[in-house]
Every structure is written in C-alpha cells, then in structure tokens.
Design brief:
Layout (H helix, E strand, L loop, with lengths): L4 E3 L3 E5 L5 H8 L16 H15 L7 E7 L2 E12 L4 E8 L8 H14 L6 E6 L4 H9 L3 E12 L3 E11 L6
Helix pairs in contact: 1-2
The structure holds coenzyme A.
Coenzyme A binds next to strand 5, helix 3 and helix 4.
Length: 181
C-alpha cells in the first residue's frame, strides 16, 4: 500500500518524501535525541536523502514490508512511527516510534502508536504486533501499556549496544483478537 496517510485526532502519519530530508535530518541529529542502538549516530543530509530514496522505492513494491511513516503535526515532522520486521507467513510485524525531544509528554507517541496498531491489525490484516523497549525506558513502556499492549517477558541480551554491551529488552505484543486500542 503506497502512499499511506493515516489521520488521527491531532497527528497525520504519512509516507516520507525525499523533500523531507532536511527536516528529518534536523530531528535525527537533535542534540538531546538519543539514537536507537541500531542507528547511525550522526547521519549527513546526503545519507538521509539516500535512505529516504531507498525507502520510497521499497515502499512501492507490491509486497511492501516496511511502513516507516513521518509523524506530522500541523504539517511539521515531529517524529516517526513504524511497522517493520514483517513476517508475512505469520501475519506479524514490529512497532516503533520516536518523538522530537522538545515535544515529549503531550501524548503524541501514544496517539501515533494507537493509529499504527489499528492500521496494522485493520487495513494490513496482521494478527500480531510486537514491540520491544529497554528496561530503563519508562516512557516507552507507558506508551505500550496505554495502547493496550501486553507485557510478555524479558529477552536477555537482546541488543548489542555500540558493538560491546549486551542489553536486555522488554517484549510486548497485541493480537487482532485483543480489544482494539
Ligand atoms: C518514548 C517516547 C516515544 C514517548 O513519547 P511521548 O510523546 O512523550 O509519549 P506520550 O506522551 O504519548 O506518553 C508518555 C507516557 O510516559 C510517561 N512517562 C514519561 N517519562 C516517564 C518516566 N520517567 N517514568 C514513568 N512514566 C513516564 C508520561 O507521563 C506518559 O504517560 P501518561 O500519559 O500516563 O502521563 C519518547 O520519549 C521518545 O521519542 N524517546 C526516544 C525514542 C524511544 O525511546 N523510542 C521507543 C523505542 S522502543
């Protein structure tokens, strides 16, 4: 499905465009944003253009497997929300999100995550959406609980941070048969 646009009470989740590169780059390199363990720490604008170009091409494949959407508020990009890691045979994918450091605590991640879960379990016909978070990421755990995901356990040494430190993850999931968030 491309292009995707999901309308929420305040947010619009939509596919990235190549001309988002400068705005998205500014968010990625914000001094108070902590990059995820699998991210390049300080991408250049050219790297972001290349990444968005790859994503746009992949998104137009008939069996699209990755929904990395811009989280926009009044037309500005304030974060990202994704469904990735698709396992089509098992109707399963993984939820992710991040919000601009100046805009935490306004319910934006919860709104975006809820919209994405409804989209995945609804339009995309998934049966299960999973999420993982670091044990010290209380805000993310709260987001997952607020949208009705269930805690399923601790995955030991799930992520290798910086190539040298193993980190555990908390695992959450929601099923299509659970109450819709
Ligand atoms: C996690 C993140 C996306 C949350 O975004 P957000 O828009 O602030 O989230 P929301 O406002 O929707 O909800 C946050 C909830 O966590 C709570 N919270 C925040 N910090 C907390 C803390 N230290 N301890 C306990 N609860 C906390 C908030 O009070 C709120 O709950 P409430 O609505 O019941 O009051 C944001 O902090 C972020 O971008 N972090 C960096 C990227 C990241 O960690 N992504 C998730 C990877 S799994």
């Amino acid at each position: 499905m491309y292009p995707v646009e999901i309308l929420g009470p305040r947010l619009v989740l939509r596919d990235y465009r190549i001309d988002d590169a400068e705005e998205f780059h500014a968010l990625l390199v914000h001094p108070r944003r902590v990059p995820g363990p699998l991210e390049i720490a300080a991408p250049t604008v050219d790297m972001v253009v290349a990444e968005l170009t790859l994503r746009q091409t992949a998104a137009q494949e008939p069996d699209r497997k990755d929904y990395q959407l811009a989280m926009t508020l009044d037309g500005r990009i304030i974060g990202s929300c994704s469904l990735s890691g698709f396992e089509p045979r098992h109707f399963r994918a993984e939820l992710g999100y991040m919000v601009h450091p100046d805009l935490h605590g306004h319910g934006y991640a919860s709104e975006a995550a809820r919209l994405m879960v409804r989209f995945g379990l609804g339009e995309l016909g998934l049966h299960r959406i999973e999420a993982t978070t670091a044990p010290d990421n209380a805000a993310s755990q709260r987001v997952l609980e607020k949208i009705g995901m269930s805690y399923e356990g601790l995955a030991r040494h799930h992520v290798l941070v910086g190539g040298h430190t193993w980190r555990d993850s908390l695992r959450y999931a929601i099923l299509a048969t659970d109450p819709m968030p």
